[in-house]
Amino acid sequence: MKSRGFVPLTRAIGFGSLPTVVDVRAGERALMRAFAEVGLPFELTRNVETPIPSGAMVELFDRCAHILGDRTFGLDIGLGMERRAYGLWGQYGLLAPTLGNAIERYIATSWAQQVGASLELVWRGDHWLWRSVLPGVSDDNRAHTDHLIHPMLGAVRTYLGPDWMPEWIEVNYARDPDAGKLEDRLGVPIRYGRPWLGLVLNPADLTRGRHPAYDDEMTDIVLRDVLADVVMPEASEPARSLSAVVGLRLLEGKTDIEGAARLAHLSVQGLQRQLRKKGYTYRELVDRARMTRAITLLRDSDVSIIEVALSLGYEDHASFTRAFNRWVGCAPIAFRKAKQAGPFLRHVPSSAADPDVLFANGSP
């Protein structure tokens, strides 16, 4: 993959029901093997808000589709992801008064869900094309692309009705021998070989208000709710995206630079070079990721301190305690006894109370 100066990211919540479907149809061992082969920690199945490299998400879908031998696997996963699949971000878009306004919201705030891909609304002479331009991270992205079709359909159907279908769909891969199965399921023509996934819309479609069938599903969500839920804010690159990779691997207590580089589709030297350009070292990213996760575990869980230490890759309680004292100015046990850490927050560096401060936030 050509270096972009950052690692394209998405949230693990984007794999939808993939873990459950593969577990039921092939067993947990097969599911765990797929995660391991891609280099993703199995703990992601219980931490779905975690940012992960987009390339790893694409590869996970490809591996699982191969394990099951099912051409429509991606479409099946996407079928259960309509309308409410992407948390507050997804719901915020659907609170807009018209379909055109909803798409505008998604385009303007897409950075809250994923980094490295983009949503666009393009005029094609007599129709609109709402498209998702995905990073080119894999030669075989069929299952991943297919799983996004129904979430996009679901968003549009919220305004145009539950039976709406576009005149055709455009996808970012070449037609394969089994593509007829996908076409039969969708019941509309598919145009292959585009650099995006896209749905065709008529001009009048964008002015339509929410369909009555979905009005009672709406709850009050404003932009500040979405921003408060963001786990991947825009920040100085490549430190922001690479720190997300480090944090992801900490779910399994792994901190080695070789594994981080593989997951980021970089060489070790390339990863170090990207960081050095911005004045960072890999050790600094590991240190900050450990601090952020340690504070979260001590404040929000009942996991023992030795378990926290081991989960962060420390060999013993003492090593972790020394590091935590350096970060926060107190021992882990004192921090936990402070009941949500309130009294100690004045001692915690601002970047620990708000981890994103380490890397100066840019405009979304």
- Count of discrete structural domains: 2
Query: Any guess at the CATH architecture of the largest domain?
Result: Alpha-Beta Complex
- Beta-strand content bin: 5-15%
CATH domain class name of the largest domain: Alpha Beta
Helix/strand/pairing class, anyone?
A: alpha+beta
Strand order of the largest sheet: 4-5-8-6-7
List unreliable stretches of 5+ residues: 227-235, 343-364
Mean pLDDT: 82
Radius of gyration: 22 Å
Helix content: 40-55%
Let me know the largest β-sheet: 5 strands, mixed
C-alpha termini separation: 25 Å
Q: Write down the CATH topology of the largest domain.
A: H-NOX domain
Tell me the total number of β-strands.
8
Order of helices and strands: EHHEHHHHEEEHHEHEEHHHHHHHHH
User: What general outline do the C-alpha atoms trace?
Assistant: elongated
Q: State the helix count.
A: 18
